[in-house]
TrEMBL record:
NCBIfam families: transpos_IS630
GO MF annotation, one: nucleic acid binding
Superkingdom of origin: Bacteria
Stated name of the protein: IS630 family transposase
Residues annotated as domain Tc1-like transposase DDE: 168-310
Domain Winged helix-turn helix, residue spans: 102-154
Residue ranges crossing the lipid bilayer per the database entry: none
Source organism per UniProt: Phocaeicola barnesiae
Length: 346
C-alpha cells in the first residue's frame, strides 16, 4: 500500500508529532509518517501496538480530509475551540491574506465564527497547525518568473559546456555608507547595548568580482564611482589573475555600465564572456550574499570615527577574506531561489 507525502505535508506532520508527544494522538500522526516512508501496514501496526485495521482507518481518514480529519475525534482537546471545518477555513484565510499580529487573527476568528481567542491563544493555535511568525520575502513586482526559468536553462547549458579550466565570476557594485546600523545581538535582559553613530553620509564605492568556485578569490576595487571605467579595471584584474584560463565568464545584472559601448568593444577583444541576469533578479547574483556578509562583519557591528577608518576596515575585510573562508563556503553555495520559491543548484 503505497502512500506519497509531499515535503510540506511531512513538515506539518512532524510538527504535529512533536506537539502531540505523550498523547494518544501521537500514534495517529506517526502512523501516517511511517506509511509515507514506505513501511507496510503490518509493520506500522506492530511498531505502534495497534491493529492493522486501525492503520487502514487512519490512512483513509488522512487521505480524505488530511490532518484535520485524522485528528477529528480529538479536536476538542487538541484544537481547542475549533472543529476541522473551521480550521480549514482559518488556514485558507491565512494563506490568502497577510496578518501581521495575533490580535487581528483573533478578531477575524470572532467575526467569522463567533469564537473568542486571546492573542496568546491564537499564537498557540497557529503554531500547532503549522504556521510560524517570520518575515515575508521581498520579490520585485516586475519579476518575470518565465524569464528566470529560461535563464536557468541557458546558464546550465553554458556552465556544463565550458572548459574545465574556465573561470566564472559574479559581478556587482556596492556602496557601504559610513554610519553604524542597529543590528540583532545577544544582550542581557533589561539592558541596552548602545552603538555610537556618526552624522555623515560618506560612502565607499566598491566595484567587485566573486569567483563562483573559490570564495577567497574576490576582486574588490575601491573607486571614485562604479561605472564602465572601474568595471574595465576589475575585468582586467581578473584577466591578470587568471592568465591561463581559456575563458572568463562574468555574470552580472543589467546596470548601464555593463552595457557601455566602449566597454563591450574592449571585452570583445579579450577572453571575457559576459552573461546578463534576467531583469529584477538579485536573487541570482551570488556576490549579493558577500555584500550582506560584509555588512554583518564590518558595517553593522563596528564604529569608525572617521571615513578613513571606515574605508580601512572595508579594505581589511577584503585583504583578509581568507579568514572567513569556512563561513563563506557555507554561505556562497551555488543554490538559488526562484521567484516561485523553487530552489535550483548549479
Amino acid at each position: 500500500m503505497e502512500m506519497q507525502l509531499s515535503t510540506s505535508e511531512i513538515e506539518i506532520l512532524r510538527k504535529l508529532q512533536r506537539n502531540l508527544a505523550g498523547s494518544s494522538d501521537y500514534a495517529r500522526v506517526t502512523c501516517i509518517l511511517m506509511l509515507g516512508m514506505g513501511n507496510s501496514p503490518s509493520f506500522v501496526a506492530s511498531c505502534l501496538g495497534i491493529d492493522v485495521s486501525t492503520v487502514y482507518r487512519y490512512r483513509s481518514a488522512y487521505l480524505h480530509g488530511g490532518a484535520d480529519e485524522l485528528l477529528e475525534n480529538r479536536h476538542k482537546g487538541y484544537w481547542g475551540l475549533f472543529d476541522s471545518r473551521q480550521l480549514s477555513a482559518l488556514r485558507k484565510e491565512l494563506r490568502e491574506h497577510i496578518y501581521t499580529d495575533a490580535k487581528s487573527v483573533a478578531e477575524w476568528i470572532k467575526s467569522t465564527f463567533g469564537v473568542e481567542y486571546t492573542p496568546q491563544g491564537v499564537v498557540d493555535l497557529l503554531n500547532r497547525i503549522g504556521f510560524t511568525y517570520k518575515k515575508t520575502s521581498e520579490v520585485p513586482c516586475e519579476v518575470d518568473a518565465s524569464k528566470q526559468a529560461a535563464f536557468v536553462g541557458e546558464l546550465s547549458e553554458i556552465l556544463s559546456g565550458m572548459p574545465e579550466d574556465a573561470v566564472v565570476y559574479y559581478a556587482d557594485g556596492v556602496h557601504p555608507t559610513h554610519n553604524s546600523r542597529s543590528t540583532y545581538a545577544w544582550i542581557e535582559k533589561g539592558e541596552k547595548l548602545e552603538q555610537p553613530t556618526v552624522s555623515g553620509r560618506d560612502r565607499v564605492n566598491i566595484n567587485g568580482l566573486l569567483n563562483a568556485h573559490d570564495v577567497t578569490d574576490v576582486i574588490a576595487h575601491d573607486c571614485e564611482s562604479v561605472n564602465a571605467e572601474s568595471t574595465k579595471e576589475v575585468y582586467q584584474a581578473a584577466l591578470d589573475r587568471h592568465p591561463e584560463a581559456p575563458f572568463i565568464y562574468i555574470i552580472s545584472d543589467n546596470a548601464r555600465y555593463y552595457h557601455n559601448k566602449k566597454l563591450k568593444e574592449w571585452v570583445d577583444g579579450t577572453k571575457i564572456r559576459q552573461i546578463f541576469l534576467p531583469p529584477y533578479s538579485p536573487n541570482f547574483n551570488l556576490i549579493e550574499r558577500l555584500w550582506k556578509f560584509l555588512r554583518k562583519k564590518v558595517i553593522n557591528t563596528g564604529f569608525y570615527r572617521t571615513k578613513e577608518k571606515f574605508r580601512q576596515a572595508v579594505k581589511d575585510f577584503f585583504d583578509n577574506i581568507g579568514n572567513y573562508k569556512e563561513e563563506l563556503e557555507s554561505l556562497l553555495t551555488l543554490k538559488f531561489r526562484l521567484s516561485n520559491s523553487q530552489t535550483i543548484s548549479f
